[in-house]
């Protein structure tokens, strides 16, 4: 019973930390990347509109997620590293959702 309760608590804490990290990264990247100088927009910039912003968004997001993975996996006990990998794998499709929210 104790093991099951610890697992539920670990999942709840993981979900809270995951959501906090995702929201913080999303809002910081949106406020940093999305505003553009009107002169740069008028000049045309890249072949694909917002291409540079999308690439920076992906690179910074992946850097933060991999950094969080490395820090979290070194801090949690060995038995809970599977939970850390679960949240890491969940963050990969979440990247697509955040990209659609940010650039639509």
From TrEMBL:
Q: Which chain regions cross the lipid bilayer? A: 7-34, 54-72, 84-103
Keywords on this record?
Membrane, Transmembrane, Transmembrane helix
So which domain of life are we looking at?
Answer: Bacteria
Q: What is this protein called?
A: Uncharacterized protein
Q: Which organism is it from?
A: Rufibacter radiotolerans
């Amino acid at each position: 019973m104790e093991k099951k309760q610890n697992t539920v608590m670990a999942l709840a804490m993981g979900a809270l930390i995951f959501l906090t990290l995702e929201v913080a990264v999303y809002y910081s990247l949106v406020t940093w990347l999305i505003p553009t100088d009107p002169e740069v927009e008028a000049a045309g910039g890249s072949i694909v509109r917002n291409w540079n912003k999308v690439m920076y968004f992906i690179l910074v997001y992946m850097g933060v997620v991999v950094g969080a993975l490395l820090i979290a996996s070194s801090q949690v006990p060995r038995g809970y590293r599977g939970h850390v990998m679960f949240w890491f794998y969940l963050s990969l499709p979440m990247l697509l959702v955040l990209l659609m929210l940010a650039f639509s």
